[in-house]
Amino acid sequence: MGLTNFRIVRLRRKDLERLKETGEKRDIEVVGMVYADEDVDPELVKATISSTKIYGSILGRADTRAALLNVSAI
Questions:
Q1: Every domain of the chain and the residues it spans
Q2: Got the DSSP string for the chain?
Q3: What is the pTM assigned to this prediction?
Q4: For the chain, which end, N or C, has fewer CB atoms within 10 Å of the first or last residue's CB respectively?
Q5: Would you place residue 5 in the very low, low, confident or very high pLDDT band (cuts 50, 70, 90)?
């Protein structure tokens, strides 16, 4: 039987801005919750997140949640 770890991933603007400066993108795969700070906007999500697979909740601004859901699935 496999074990699944519940995680909380917090998206902070300063972390995503740093990622954007390097030109890198990240995949998000989580069972649990993704929490985007209020100052994280959809453009920053699109510039820094390449794909998502989220089993659980997404908290944050409505437009940011939509952007996370519309990023290519892993």
A1: 13-70
A2: ------EEEEE-HHHHHHHHHHT--EEEEEEEEEEE-TT--HHHHHHHEEEEEEEEEEES-HHHHHHHHHSPB-
A3: 0.86
A4: N
A5: confident
